[in-house]
Amino acid sequence: MSEKGKIEIDNITKIFRREDEDIETLTALDEVSLNVEPGEFVSIVGASGCGKSTLLRIIAGLETPTIGEVRKDGDTITGTDETRGLVFQDHSLYPWISVWNNVTFGLKSLGKYKEKKEYAEKLLELVGLSQFKRSYPSQLSGGMSQRIALIRALVTEPDVLLLDEPLGALDAFTRMNIQDVLIDLWKETKSTMILITHDVDEAIYLSERVVVMTPRPGRIVDELKIEMSYPRERSHSQFVEYRNKILKKLDYAHEQSIGYYI
Ligand SMILES: Nc1ncnc2c1ncn2[C@@H]1O[C@H](COP(=O)(O)OP(=O)(O)OP(=O)(O)O)[C@@H](O)[C@H]1O
Ligand SMILES: [Mg+2]
Fold this sequence. Notes:
The protein is α/β, with parallel strands linked by helices. It has one domain (7-92, 160-257): P-loop containing nucleotide triphosphate hydrolases (Rossmann fold), CATH 3.40.50. The protein contains eight helices and ten strands. A hairpin with a 7-residue loop joins strand 1 (7-17) and strand 2 (25-36). It is globular and about 50 Å long. The model is unreliable at 253-260 (pLDDT under 50). It binds adenosine-5'-triphosphate and magnesium ion. Residues 16, 18, 26, 28, 46, 48-54 line the site of adenosine-5'-triphosphate.
């Protein structure tokens, strides 16, 4: 397991000013603390508006907390850097350059193209898209684009990969497919993974720990260690038990009949 990639979220509160509303401020995060170990896979689930993206943006260094701090490997995060990669729902590949140039874009800007070219090839192969190297993003399906977005973020070997609903726009079948790809990529890269998802099953299927948040104000209310070996069986009784526990925490247990998305 990699030595680097520890994240310490130390009692952070994030207050936004909202001048357009009667309420002048909004507490998006209220005294949130969480430690993530090097190489760990943690998912964060919670209803819309509970501050998940805000939390991830603070870890990325795109936002600063109003109170408290976040550290990576002991150093306070004050901005973005290449040790923390980000993938959003909108893959935002550069449409005017080829798949290969998209994947290696970060390597070139870091001056590591020669050194990491073979690694880029390996990741492309791992996600099954080697033959699309010379294609352009417009020629790819949504699922293929998201695979490329994942390896584009991983090719520079970040210690931590931050994932904000990366599979949110995909159909259920493609989504399950890429969940397996994501596990392969995690095992290959050994990066710390912090994933935000609305899909409780996805969180249980992928992560070693699931963190549950609730809104108004955004707080962590629980966390569960998922003690199942990979690959996980979605119909396994233990899996179902975890699902029920999390849904109950989210107060959505009564809505099981309409699916597991929150
Ligand atoms: N830049 C901002 N200015 C003002 N308010 C903001 C800003 N960013 C987020 N908020 C508010 O903070 C709260 C948390 O937003 P956030 O985007 O973190 O939620 P989320 O859990 O990611 O929701 P979703 O699941 O819908 O993506 C919301 O009420 C949102 O309106
Ligand atoms: Mg969000």
